[in-house]
Amino acid sequence: MSYSYLFKYIIIGDTGVGKSCLLLQFTDKRFQPVHDLTIGVEFGARMINIDGKQVKLQIWDTAGQESFRSITRSYYRGAAGALLVYDITRRETFHHLTTWLEDARRHSNSTMTIMLVGNKCDLDSRRAVSYEEGKKFAQQHDLIFLETSAKNDENVEEAFNYTARIINEKIEKGIIDVTNEMNGVKVGNAPTATTNLLEKPTTSEPKGKCCG
Amino acid sequence: MRKRGDSSPTTSEYSDVTNQQEQITTSSSPRIVLEEINNDHIIVGNYHHQSSKIFAKVVKLEQLVKQIHQNKYYIKRIKFVKDQSEEIVLNENEKEQFTDLLNKLRRLILSSPDRESLEENETTLGCIKDSLRQHVWPLLLHDPDHLCKDKQTVFHLTKKLDKTHEQYEQVEKDVERSLFKFLAPFFGRYNKSIVYVNTSNASSTSNLSGGVSKNVGSKTMNLELNYKRKNLSLVVNSILQTEKKLKQNEILDEESPEKLAEKVGQLYYFQGFHEICSVLLLTFQDSLETTFRCSYRLAMNHFHDAMHSLHLDAIMKKCRMIIKILEKDGHDDICQVLRKSDMDQGHYALSWILTWFAHVIDQDCHDKEDETETVSTSSKILNENSIMPTLFIVQTLFDVFLAVGNPMFVVYVAASVVIERKEELLILRNGGSVASVREKLSAASGGRTEVDFPFSADEDEENLNYVEFTVVFGLLNRFPKNVTLRWIERVIGRALSMWKEHDYRSLFATEIPNDSFPFPYMKECEHLTENSPPDYWRDEEEERLIQEAKRKAASKHSVVPATTLIVGGIALAIAVYISAQSWFFQSIPFK
Fold it and tell me: Mind telling me which PROSITE patterns this protein's record contains (chain B) (predicted)?
C-alpha cells in the first residue's frame, strides 16, 4: 500500500517505563513481559490511516539510561513526533520529565509534537502518580496527554494515532514544511490533499483515561 | 620471550605428564582440575560432541590446563595468595615458562583447523566446554587465586550491599529482566539432556540439580531465574560498590585502602554490563567468587573505557574505527554504502562492542514440541537443523575475546561482521523494486534478514534509494537470526587475519590513548601480540605442518626463479640483438 506521508517518531523517557513495550504492542500487537532492554536505539514501523490518508510511522525507540543520552540525542533531530513516557507506578520517572522535556526541546525542531504518556495504567493498585497530576503537567508544558497500558493494549493505538493527527493538522495548516526532511515528514506517492470520505477513519478519539 | 619450537626444559618436564595423560585419556582427573569430565552422563553446560576432532581439541586443552596448574610459578602464586605470611621467591625463569604456557593456551583456543570435517553447528574454536572455561577464563584474566575457595576476598565484604548506592536501583531494574534469553532454551527441548552442574553447591533449592533443573515447567524456570538474578545482582552491585567500600575502609587489605580506591576509581555502570556478568555467572555455574573476580577484571580492563566514564563517547570512538578497518582491508564498496547512508559513525555496532555481542545475539528458542518423546542421546537434540542456543554462541565469542585479550580486537570482529554481510549491503546498493530487493535479501541471508523499508510495500519503481540511514541501520543493527557456529568461525577467522594484517596501533595511532592497558598484567597481552609469530592463533602442531608444507613448496620453487632468470636473460639478449639489427637495417636506406 502506498502512503501519503511518512512521519518519524521518537520514544523517550526513563529506563524501564515501557518504551519498547509500547512500540512492540503498536507494531506487532503483542506484549512481552520480559522485554530485553534497549542499547542505543532500535526502530519499528507501521502504517496507519489518518483522515483517509495512509501514513507510515517510523518509530525510533531509545535507551533510557543516562549513559546513552549523548547518543540518543542525535535522533531527536528529524523527528516529527515524540512520545515522552513515564511509569505511573514509579514517581521518580515522573519527576525526571522536566529534564527529558528540556532535552527534547533543545535538540529537536520547534514543530515537533510531543505527547506525554503515563504507561502501566493496568497497575492501578500500585499507582504513584495520579491521572490529574499527569494532566496538569501536560497542560503546563503544552503537551497532549494519555495514560496507556502496553500490557492490556489500552490507548496504545490512540497515543500514536493522536500524535499523527496533530502532525497532519500542522501540515495542513502549513506549520510543518514537508519539503524539509529535517521536520520528520516525508511525502509519499499516494495523494495527500484529497480525503477519502468513503473510508471511515480507523481511529477513534482517545479515551482520555484508561482503566476507569 | 622464548620462540616457538624451542626445546625447553619445561617441555621435557611435562612430557611425562602428557604421556601419562594419553594412556589414561581423560577419565582420570588430577586433584583440582576438571572433575566434571568424569561424569559421562552429564553434559556440562554443553552439547555432546559427535566429532572426534572436537574431542581431540578438548583433550589438548585439558592437558594444557593441567600443565599450567602444575607450573611451579603458578603453584607458588596460589600459595602466596593463600597464606600471605609465607615468604615465596618468585623465579623469573619459571614465570617465563608460565607465560609461555599461557600463550600456548591462547593459541590453542583460537585455533580451529578441520573446518571441512565439521557440521554447520560444530566448531573447534574456543574452549568448547563449560568445565574447561571454568579453568581457562580465570587463567586468561590472570586471576591466580580463583582456586582458593577459602580465601576471604573483597567480595565477601562487598556482599553486604548498600541499597542506597546511586547505581543500585538501575542495576536492580536491569537484573529484573535479565538472563531470560540465555536460560530459555534449556527449558525447551534441550532440557532433558543438558544439565548444568552446580560446582559451588550453592543452590538454595534442593530439587534443582545445579544451574538448570531437569524438570520442565515455567514454575521451575521462574525459580531458576529468581535464584540466578539474585546472584547476578550481588555480583554487579559488588563490583560497582567496591570503590566506595575501599574508601570507607570497610575492606582491609595489605595495601592501604585509599591507595587501592584511587587505583580502582569510580566505576560507572552501563546497561549491558549486567549481560556480560550473566554470561560469566552461567559459565561459572553460580560460583559467585569466580564470577565476581572475573567480571571485576573485565570491568577494570577490557571494558575500562566504558566503565570509567559517565558517557560512552569512548565506545562511539571505537564504532567509528570500523570503517577505517574496512577501508584498509580494501572494501571500498562497503565503505561507499556506509558513507552514503550516514552509517560511517558505526551506530549499529554500539551494543556489539559494548557487550561483546552478548546483547545482540538472540537465537530462537524451540518450543517444547517433543516433550513426550524420550530423548536419550543429545545428538538428537542438537542435530544439523537445530538452532544453537544463544549462550553457546556468546560463550564461544567470549573465549576468543579473552584469548586475544586486547580490548581493541572487538572492533575487528565488528568489521568482520559487516564484511560477512557484504552481499546484502550490495543488494541494497544495486536497488530494484521493493519486492525484488526483499527477495534477494532473504535469499542471500538464508531468510535471516528482515528489513523495514521506508517505502510502501507495492512500490515498484526502480530508482528507489535503499542506501539510506534507516534501511542500512535496520539491516546491520538487527543481527542475523540463528547464526551457526560455522558463521561465527568465519567471522572470527577473518577478524583474526585483519588483526594481524592491519595493526591497530598504526591504524588508530591518533585515536587510542597511550595506556590502553591500565593494569600491568594486561601488558602481557600486548606483549603477546607484539612478539608472537604472525599466525599466533594456530596451535603449534598446525603451525609446524604449515611450515613444513611451505618449506617443501619453497624447495620446489627455488629452481623456478633460476630458470626464469636464465630464460629471461636469453630472451632479453635476443630482443636487444633483433632491435639493434632492425635499427641497423632501417638505418641503411638513409645512408
Answer: TBC_RABGAP
B257 and B176 in one domain? Answer: yes
User: Which of 3.40.50.2300, 3.90.1150.10, 1.20.1300.10, 3.40.50.300 is the CATH number of A5-187?
Assistant: 3.40.50.300
Whether the CB of A41 is below 8 Å from some CB of chain B: the reply is yes
B97 & B230 share domain:
no
Residues B331 and B458 grouped into a single domain: yes
More reliable by pLDDT, A1 or A72: A72
Instruction: Provide the domain limits for residue B436.
Output: 320-340+404-513
| Greater pLDDT, B190 or B108 | B108
pLDDT at residue B262, as a whole number: 59
Helix (H) or strand (E) holding B543: helix B540-557
Question: In angstroms, rounded to a whole number, what is the distance separating the alpha carbons of residues B43 and B36?
Answer: 9
pLDDT bracket for residue B275 (50, 70, 90): very high
Place of cell 504513584: A128
Instruction: Give the residue extent of every domain in chain A.
Output: 5-187
In chain A, what residues touch B346 (CB-CB under 8 Å)? none
Of A15, A42, A70, the CB nearest to B313: A70
Region of B114 (left: φ > 0; alpha: ψ -120 to 50; beta: rest) is left
Alpha-carbon distance B153 to nearest alpha carbon in chain A (angstroms): 30
Q: Are strands A53-62 and A144-147 parallel, antiparallel or unpaired?
A: unpaired
Which among B173, B359, B362 has CB closest to A15?
A: B173
Q: Which residues contact B182 (CB under 8 A, 6 or more apart)?
A: B278, B279, B282, B389, B390, B391, B394
Question: Could A36 and B359 be called an inter-chain contact, meaning their C-beta atoms sit closer than 8 Å?
Answer: yes
Comparing C-alpha atoms, which of B370, B355, B4 is closest to residue B192?
B370
On whether both B411 and B292 belong to a single domain, the answer is: no
The DSSP output letter for B325 is H
Element (H, E) at A47: strand A41-50
A58 in contact with B at a CB cutoff of 8 Å?
A: yes
Question: What pTM did the predictor assign?
Answer: 0.78
For residues A56 and A168, the answer to whether their CB atoms sit within 8 Å is no
Mean local confidence (pLDDT), A175-183: 86
Contact A23, A59 (CB under 8 A): yes
With 80 as the cut, is the pLDDT of residue B558 above it?
A: no
Q: Are B77 and B157 contained in the same domain? A: no
Judge whether A28 is closer than 8 Å to chain B, CB to CB: no
Same domain, yes or no, for B444 and B498? yes
Q: What is the pLDDT of residue A62?
A: 94
Q: What is the ipTM of this complex?
A: 0.85
- Asked if the model's pLDDT at residue B381 lies above 50, the reply is no
In chain B, which residue's Cα lies nearest the Cα of A32? B177
CA triple B5-B6-B12, angle to 5 deg: 100
Taking the CA atoms of B427, B432, B437 and B439 in sequence, report the sign of the dihedral they define.
negative
Using CB atoms, pick whichever of B311, B454, B458 lies closest to residue A67: B311
State the smallest CA–CA distance between residue A70 and chain B in angstroms: 7
HSE toward the beta carbon, residue B242, CA cutoff 13 A: 28
CA A24 to chain centroid, in Å, comes to: 13
